[in-house]
Write a sequence for this structure.
């Protein structure tokens, strides 16, 4: 079931300019698949989907693996245009985004596979990044702030 859903998601994002998880859920439903937002969020992470800027100025889901997307460049572009602030508290980095962009930024951050990161969780406009220790969180936060200055 999961692999079939994954294949369908990849098919959907290759055929349509999908901007939101809700669009993925709707298109999956049309194809006979049932999925929750939490399931789609995990699928996006598993498939290493990232949001990239289209020629019309809108962000759309694309497959980093199959479309040869430069992850660092895509991350920098998405991060720079979607993130409002970055801070840390003990071993947690906190990233504030524009409304609705936290999940995309979080998925993109996860695709970078940073060894200092233990795990991430995203809401609508906030991302919590659990790091191994307070030093790692502070270093990650400072590193991420560099993307805001570009």
């Amino acid at each position: 079931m999961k692999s079939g859903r994954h294949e369908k998601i990849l098919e959907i994002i290759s055929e349509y300019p999908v901007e939101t998880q809700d669009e993925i859920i709707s298109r999956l439903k049309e194809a006979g698949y049932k999925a929750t937002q939490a399931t789609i969020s995990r699928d996006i992470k598993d498939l290493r989907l990232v949001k990239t800027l289209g020629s019309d100025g809108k962000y759309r889901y694309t497959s980093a693996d199959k479309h040869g997307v430069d992850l660092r460049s895509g991350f920098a572009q998405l991060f720079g245009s979607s993130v409002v602030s970055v801070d840390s508290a003990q071993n947690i980095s906190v990233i504030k985004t524009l409304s609705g962009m936290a999940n995309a930024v979080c998925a993109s951050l996860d695709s970078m596979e940073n060894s200092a990161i233990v795990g991430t969780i995203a809401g609508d406009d906030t991302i919590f990044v659990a790091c191994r220790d307070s030093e790692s969180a502070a270093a990650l936060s400072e590193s991420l702030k560099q993307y805001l200055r570009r």
